[in-house]
Structure formats: C-alpha cells, structure tokens
Design a protein that fits this description.
The complex is a heterodimer of chains A (263) and B (241).
Chain A (H helix, E strand, L loop, with lengths): L2 H26 L9 E7 L2 E5 L16 E4 L2 E8 L6 E3 L6 E4 L4 E4 L5 E4 L5 E2 L5 E2 L5 E3 L8 E6 L4 E6 L6 E5 L2 E3 L7 E2 L5 E2 L8 E3 L8 E4 L1 E3 L5 H33 L3
Antiparallel strand pairs in A: 1-4, 2-3, 5-20, 6-19, 7-8, 7-11, 9-10, 12-13, 13-14, 15-18, 16-17
Helix pairs in contact in A: 1-2
Chain B lengths: L1 H26 L9 E9 L8 E10 L6 E3 L6 E3 L4 E6 L2 E5 L5 E2 L5 E2 L24 E2 L4 E4 L2 E5 L2 E3 L7 E4 L2 E3 L5 E2 L5 E3 L1 E3 L5 H42 L1
Classes of the chains: A alpha+beta (263), B alpha+beta (241).
C-alpha cells in the first residue's frame, strides 16, 4: 500500500543526490583554471491521467473544468554548463594565457583527436613546443627556439620571441581559437577539456580578435566561474527537498502499517 | 455494516492518491517551472440508500498558478517569467507551453529546451541566434539582442482558461485554447523560476492525510471486529437452539 508515493519520493531523493554531486563537483573545482559551473536541471516524470480535463459531464455539453493528473516523480533533464567568463588571475608565467571573450584553445590529445579547452596554463616541453600541463601539444603547434630572452603573445595570438644577441623580435607562430555555434553542447572529458559533439556542431577556427572570437591576454589565467554563495544556497534547497522526500517515505510507510493492522 | 466499510474504503483510496500527488509535488520541489497542485474532493451521495450514505471521491487536481520564486543561475539562456504567461515550444506533437525557461542552443544556433525542442517567438516561429556574436541579452520585455542588434523576441502567451491545460511530458503543458500574446511580459535573464511548491503546506497535508488514514483504518478494523462478534453470537445462539 502507498507504494507509488514511496517510488515518487525515491525519484526525488535520487534527483537531490545527483544535484548534491553536481554542487560538490562545482565546489571541488572552485579554484580549477577556467572551470565552468554546472547546474542540474530536472523535469517531471510521466503523468497518470485518472480523469481527463474537457471530457463531457452531461449530454448538455458541460465539460470537466479540470482533470485528475498525478505526476509520477522527477527525472534529470540535463546538466547546463555556465559559459560566462571567469575572473582574470594574474600570473608571472609568459606562457599563461587567458581568452577574453568566446573561444577555446585547441590541443592534440594522445588519441590524435583535437580537444578544446579554455585552460591556458601552457608550458614548453624539452623540444621547445608549447604544451598543456599534461604535455599535450597546442594546435597549431608553436615551437619556441633556444636562447630566447623573452616571449610576447599579443591579443591576436601572434607569438614573438626575442633571441639573445638579435635586436629584432621574431614571430614564431600564431595561436588560433576554435568556437562553436553551441559551446554548451561540447562533451567534457578530464583535465577541463572538451570534445565536439553533434549538439555543439563543428568548430569555426579563426585568429583571436576576429568577429565572434575573444582576444588573448598574456600573463593571466581564467579563474572558475563558480560562485560559492550560489552553491551554498543551492545546498540549502537540495537539503530541504531531500528532507521533504524522506518525510513522504515515512508517511507512506506508516500508511502501509495502518493497512496491515486491519487484520 | 458493509456500507460503513465501503465508505471508509472510498476515503482510503482517495487518501492514497492524495499522498501520491503530494509525493510528486515534493519530488519536483526543485524542478524549474513546475506548478504544484491540489486535489479537490467531492461527496458522492448514494440516493438509493435510505441511510443517506455519503462517499468521498477525488474530483480534480488543479495546478497552482501563483509564480514560483526565481533563483539565479547566471546562464544567459536561462529565463524566468515574472507574473503570468507561458513560453511556447514546438514539439513533434504540436505547440506546447511551459514556464520552464532552462533553454540552450543547438548546433544550428536555434534556441531549444532541454529536450531539444525549439522555443518560439511571439510570432510562433523558431529563434535562431547568429554564431558570430559575443554576448546574448534578453531584456525584460523579451527582446533578444546581441552587440550587433536585435535578433528576435521571446514569446510569452496567456490563455483564457489556464486550468484547461494539462501536463503532457516533463513541464510541458498541452491545451486546446488559443494562445494570446502577453502584451506586457516581464522576464528575467540569468534566472529560473523554481517550482511553486510550498514545502510547509505539503508537510502539514501529509500529517493530516496520515491521521485521516489511520482513523479510517481504525474504523474498518472496528467494523471487522463487530462483524466477527455478531457472527460468533449468531453461531452461539444457533447452537443453543
């Protein structure tokens, strides 16, 4: 008895647990470079129609003004990624870059696929190539020659170096950015990197500063766009909903007990 | 005496459905755009009985139309309606309506719901956002624009009888009523409307249902007891004769 209510409440408890996991992930990544806050969106599960609205109640043509519809619980609809830019964090490393505006850096993953990230904490490997913290090559790859005294990356992505003994700086390459019609449709893999999907569409590639693309900022990293206060208020909402669902479970169970006690 | 048990059962059945309904409201406490509801009961008089027995039946579930509190998400494609009205959504089954403004873009730049259905403008057409824009702005009157100018407007519709709408799937509502463009809409970008479920009220209702349910089960139990006593008595009398 009352089993349906118990299942409905269970769907609520599961959704709240997932919401808590999303919040925990946001808070854990509060200081991850260029991390995007996630929001779990829920929607209602199927409805059971016990009596439909608008059905005739008499031959005179009178109709039922409201039906009896009982929802069967809640389900997850999607996890939205907040695409707003995070704050700029000053860094002394000349290979640390931040994208001001839309766009993603392209990196070559070990599988040969192109990954997309806004995490601009680059460094150079033993061959002088610009790589991510995982050692994956930046695409198009930029090689920094030996004996360089300074590296300058301008807002349009041109990388110029000053080689010891030479007076003129030398341009060694241009960093390009990728953008998508629906960046929210990218799928996340680890290390704050994304892959293109059918939902995101294919990448548009251009130099920074072109219409629809952000510009580069050297000596800075993008902070996460997680707001601790929003997450905390979210925690309160999650907890309250979970407690209410637990209360329903308790009521359903006690109604069951009352039925059993008849005999 | 059987009648009393049946009346008790009619109440027990209704209470079961009511607890399901409250469970659904509470499970969706954090579902954007969800409109909680109430169950309405009616008395069924049984005229053929000279005792004037009165049963109880559930008559309708109604949606609470009061807007829920908006909560901030910061996502530029999340929109909350302040006041009355519904967004229109193009589904394979036809145009449906919702107060859930958790939108995003698809690969073609079309504004869609979480199910991928296009969200419609006041002219009931899909809204396409150009790719090469930096920032999307949705003003309180529903105008969608970017730094390059106006793109489209977000349709918000009213109905003569909002109660004639019924839930179909998710937070989408179906209706046969004609959608009327809301002339002075008020939307908030970067927010979602939380479910309008009042947790305290629902908990109090749960308590009342439990009390009623325990009461009615007690009544049925008493009836059973009386019946078995009467049978015993009859058997005893029969044996004596």
């Amino acid at each position: 008895m009352s089993i349906q209510a118990a299942y409905i409440a269970a769907s609520g408890m599961e959704a709240q647990q997932r919401a808590l996991e999303v919040t925990a992930h946001n808070l854990a990544n509060m200081n991850s470079t260029a991390f995007n806050k996630r929001t779990l969106l829920t929607t209602t599960l199927a409805y059971q129609d016990f009596s439909r609205v608008g059905t005739l109640t008499s031959s005179a043509g009178t109709v039922k003004p409201a039906g009896i519809q009982i929802g069967m619980g809640v389900k997850m609809a999607g996890v939205a990624r907040l695409l707003n830019q995070g704050p700029a964090i000053q860094s002394d490393d000349p290979f640390h870059l931040m994208i001001e505006g839309p766009g993603y850096f392209q990196i070559t993953l070990p599988s040969g696929e192109i990954g997309y990230t806004r995490d601009g904490s680059f460094t150079v490997n033993a061959e002088g190539q610009m790589v991510t913290q995982q050692g994956y090559l930046l695409e198009p790859n930029i090689t920094i020659p030996a004996n360089v005294t300074s590296v300058t990356i301008n807002p349009n992505g041109d990388v110029s170096v000053k080689i010891d003994g030479q007076t003129q700086p030398q341009v060694v390459g241009t960093i390009t950015l990728a953008n998508f019609v629906n960046p929210g449709g990218l799928t996340a893999i680890d290390n704050n990197t994304f892959l293109e999907t059918v939902a995101s569409g294919g990448p548009n590639i251009a130099a920074p500063g072109q219409p629809g693309f952000g510009t580069l900022l050297q000596n800075a990293l993008e902070g996460s766009n997680v707001n601790a206060v929003t997450e905390m208020t979210g925690l309160i909402r999650i907890q309250q909903a979970y407690e209410m669902d637990a209360k329903v479970q308790q009521t359903a169970s006690r109604m069951g007990e009352a039925s059993v006690n008849i005999v | 005496m059987a009648l009393a048990t049946d009346i008790g059962l009619s109440l027990a059945t209704v209470l079961h459905r009511q607890v399901d309904h409250i469970a659904s409201n509470l499970a969706n406490m954090n579902t954007p755009g969800y409109q909680g509801g109430k169950m309405i009961f009616a008395e069924h008089l049984l005229k053929s009985q000279d005792t004037g027995a009165s049963f109880v039946g559930d008559y309708a579930t109604t949606r609470t139309l009061q807007p829920g509190a908006p909560f901030f998400t910061g996502d530029p494609l999340h929109v909350a309606i302040k006041g009355s009205g519904y967004f229109a959504v193009e589904t394979p089954a036809g145009v449906r309506f919702t107060r859930n403004g958790g939108f995003s873009l698809n690969a073609e730049g079309v504004l869609v719901t979480q199910d991928g259905y296009p969200v419609l403008s006041s002219g009931l057409g899909p809204i396409t956002v150009p790719a090469e824009i930096q920032k999307i702005e949705i003003s309180p009157d529903g105008t969608i624009s970017s730094e390059q100018g106006i793109i489209d407007n977000l349709g918000v519709f009213n109905f003569e009888n909002e109660y004639a709408m019924r839930y179909e799937s998710g937070t989408l509502l179906a209706t046969d009523e004609e959608p009327l463009v809301n002339p002075d809409i008020q939307v908030a970008q970067g927010s979602l409307e939380n479910a309008n479920v009042n947790a305290i009220e629902q908990t109090v209702n749960l308590q009342q249902i439990l009390t009623s349910y325990q009461g009615v089960q007690k009544l049925i139990q008493e009836q059973n007891h009386m019946r078995s006593q009467a049978t015993q008595q009859l058997l005893k009398t029969g044996a004596a004769i």
